[in-house]
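seq:
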Amino acid sequence: MYPQTARVAMLREIRPPQTRPFAIETVAVPPLTEGAVLGKIVMAGVCGTDVHILHGKVAIKTPAILGHENVARVEAIGGEQPLRDITGKQIHIGDLITWLPKSCMKCYNCTILGDPAKCERRIGYGGWVPAWQHPYLVGGFAEYVWLLPDSDIVVIPPEVPPPAVVLGDALRVMVHGLERIGGLEYGDTVVVQGAGAVGLMGLLLARDAGAGRVIVIGGPAGRLALAKEFGADEVIDITQTSAAQRIARVLELTNNRGADVVFECAGVPAAVAEGLEVVRINGRYLIAGHYGDAGTVPLNPHMINRKQIRIDGAWSAANKHFLRGLNLLRKIPVDRLVTHQFDLDHVNEAVIATERQEALKAVIMP
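struct:
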C-alpha cells in the first residue's frame, strides 16, 4: 500500500530565493485513478528557470510545487491495465522514470507547424500544473509525485544514472537548438556563451557533433575548469575580461574570421550583442539561454545584414529531443556536473546556491 501523506516544499508566494520562500508542508496523497502513477522522488534538479520563477520572470500560479527535472521510482500504478512509456516500454513498479512536458498534439502549433515544443495547451510539471487542485503532488521538490494518466513518462535505461537525467532538461534544449540550426559541419569552430548547465551541454553536443574547436565564454572559474575537463579548447573568463577583449580573443583564435556557430546559453541580453560580433560571415547564431525575460539590449542590424548571419532560437524541446539526448547521457559521465546535493528541508539553500552560481547543478534528494 502506498503512503497516504507526503512532505512537499510548497511555494505559496513569488519571492526571491534569499527570502526563503519555500515552506515544508505535509499534504494528502490522492487515490490513484486508472493510468495514474505515483512516484517516489529520487532526485530533483534545481534549474535556472526555478530562479527566474522566484524573480517573477517566468509566470506561474501559486501555490506551486516546483521541480521539473526529476527522477522517481514507481511506487504504484493506478488500475489493472498495462502502462507504457513514450517509447512503448511497459512501466513496472520499481522502475526509475522521468517525465516530460505533455503537448496536446491537436493545436495549430502541434499539427500545422509540427512543433510540439510550442504547444498552446502544454502541461508542464514543476510549476505549471496547479498544486491547489487534484492531483496536488505535481513537482519534484517533494517526497512523491502524482502523475496524471497519459503523462509522457520515460523509463530510464539502466546505464544512465539519475544525476545525468536531471541534466537532460538542459541537454534536450540544446539538441533542439542544434536541430534548428541544421547541425554542425565537421570541423566547425563553435563559441559557447555561458558555462552553466545549458552551456556545458552545448559544449558536449558540439564535441559529439564533430566540432573542430570549442571556445567557452563564461564564469566563474570553477565552471570554466569543468568546461576544460569536458573538452573545451579555450575558456574565457568574463570576470577577468572586457567584452572588447573577449571579441578580440575569439577573432585571434579564428584567423580574424569569427566562429562558424555561436551558442548563446547565458541568458544575459548583453551576450547577444557580443555574440553577434564573433560570428563569421554566413555564420549561425543560436539563442537558447533566454527562457525567462531578462530584458532588452541595443543591436546594430547592419552587422546581421552585412555578415548574413542566420539567427535562430530554441524554446524548450519536444520528446524526441530528450530521447535523442539519451545517447549522449549513455556515453559521457555528465553526472559529474551535479556538484551539490541537498535534502528537502534545505530546498531554499539549494535555490540560493543556484542563483549565486555556487553550484553548477544542485539537486534535491528527499
